[in-house]
Structures
1.
Amino acid sequence: MERTFAIIKPDAVAAGQTGEILAVIQKTGFRVVGMKMRRLSQIDAEGFYAVHKERPFYASLVKFMTEGPVVVMVLEADDAIKKWRDTMGATNPANAAEGTIRKRFATSIERNCVHGSDAPETAAVEIPFFFTASELL
């Protein structure tokens, strides 16, 4: 079993899509081993997305991720990282496969409703950014 980190972003939470996204997660066979709703502070968002600090979209990403509540999760399944990335769909919803979360719910490449770790090394950093070991089942 592998674990991955996921976020339901502010756009999807504000649009009332959290329940539908959680339903997709469960139907796809993930076990949710940690979940909380919270609002990211400026410092949280800057720290979490520090890897993108030199990219032109960094400031707008930080602003977007602090505009409303998010749902952060740890998901578990066989090959969870790849499985979650396949379930999310391409970053740009225009390029996402039919039936993926981003194809169904995202409105743009910036407001793409969900996040997921892209590698085991990334998950190993992202999970403890939001969860302590005692918070995970």
2.
Amino acid sequence: MNLKEIKEIIGLMNENDLAEIEIERDGLKLKLKKSVLESSLVMPSAPVKYSLEKIPTPTTNHEPVSAGEPSKKGGAEIKSPMVGTFYRSPSPEAPPFVEIGQMVEVGQVVCIVEAMKLMNEIKSEVRGKIKEAVVDNAEPVEFGQALFIVEPV
């Protein structure tokens, strides 16, 4: 993979508003990921960090999910940062990460979204009470789709 191909991939990421992409070719794994700023200030755009590295084994992505704009149902939304399958608990026999009516803190894991056989922990960036679980367990979710409605405290 040469620099021109990498620049084209970066251009495609920016054009399609992708936060992360991973490509494997001839034993080389290219993982491009935009960095996320954790701040209470609203910034017009976050700086982008790109890295090229050889990764011998797959790693799990632990990305926080930002609290979206207030929902029509009242409260802040915790949205999916990717396309995948939504799971409320770490395994079928385990209790859910959060229940309706439970208080959540910033950085607390609220669910998992499985994407390409990787389990991605979704963390809350809002402190409050879980008002509603919008998605049923084991349902497919889209990028930006609301997963939970949180009543901020």
3.
Amino acid sequence: MDAVYNAVDAITGLKGRLLDYTLRAVTGGRDAIGEVTVKVDFDGTVVVGKGSSTDVIEASARAYLNAINRLVRPAAAPQVKEVGP
């Protein structure tokens, strides 16, 4: 996981410090889906990310990228579309 996170850091130009890493099985069986939750510190801003896949490394990368996306693009206020004249 360290190599994946270092590669993502190099590509994005952001440096995160992993605070917590959790892996749990969402489904059972041979092709079980694993869900990874990470808590990452980006220079004092702590962000949680989640990702899932049948591959643990892919789920981990997805979780880390989810955390980065939450850091750089916080949830925008819901947009209301007005209908009518």
4.
Amino acid sequence: MRLAHLSLLALIALSGCSSVDTVKGWLGSKKDGMEPAKLVEFGETAKFEVRWHIDLGDSGASLLQPALTGNAIYGASGKGVLTRVDRITGKQVWRVESGMAVSGGVGSGEGLVLIGSDKGDVLAYGEDGKLRWKSKVSSEVLSAPQAAQGVVIVRSGDGRIAGLDAADGKRVWLYERSTPALVVRNHAGVTLQRGVAFAGFAGGKLAAIKIVDGSVLWEVSVSQPRGSTELERISDITSNPVADDEQVCAIAFQGRVACFDVAQGNPLWNRDIGSDKGVMLLRKYLYLSDARGSVMALDKTSGNTLWKNEQLFMRDTATPYVLGDFVVVGDYEGYLHGMNREDGSFAARIKLDGSAIQAAPVGLDNGLLVQTRDGGLYSLSIH
């Protein structure tokens, strides 16, 4: 069983501060003596179907996810194998050995396929599988690099964000800020929206950064540290923010979920809901998995709860993904759950390869794409 309580986790050195490691997780197993919920039986009203499946190779300790382009899918293994897959058939098109352990990826943009290593290496490949350039940032890359407007945005484990020239990998700007004494080691990256990179940080801070030059447009507090010990006061944003044309929202571990005006960063609302997972914003609603595994739908304008499903208690539920009439979420035993979008009740369930599903599904051709911890890449539909 994985470690279950924050105070039991090992502390490791990271750039002069200490870090609580969330790679293995402490949710989805015993926590203060509480067992993960057993799955309840229900009458299926929908069905998952596997359209194709391919093995990418084990992710190791990394949280890896696939990237999509117009006609291809790119996936990576923890041991450094990068694979191009045909998005219709699931057949391998090419496979290259990067020569490094991949800890962040896969990202894309500007005609590039991007991966990062635990040594701070950033590799940019063309869609033909040929290496375009290699660069280096200040520490390990734990999330997928992203590219837009001629800039590759790379977030490193020390909290810095680097803007690299998409043509040659040379650094064009660097964003850095002070870090609390104790932080959560996590896979938070950046979210790109209309020329802006949104990123959450240790201490509950959220920043809007201009992609082309790294200038800060605004910075706000999603959550304030609370408690008497440094462990209790951890309130880091450990997942990617979400944004649309009107607002940007983020959630903090042991903290709050909050939404802000996208242009100025003016606060709209906040609630005391904590999670180390991310959120999904779609039209009028915000979907999330909280710290205890409950899946929730909130009104994006007020934060009011529309529904809450508590039947996946402590199952380390990942970030939800909305597909048609369903909300889809994975858990630590490799189950994929389909919930009715209207009320959160179970509609369908499928078990993939039995290893954890930690990254949110990705939309793919009226279906979804899921990568498991053991490296299984699945294209599925639900109807």
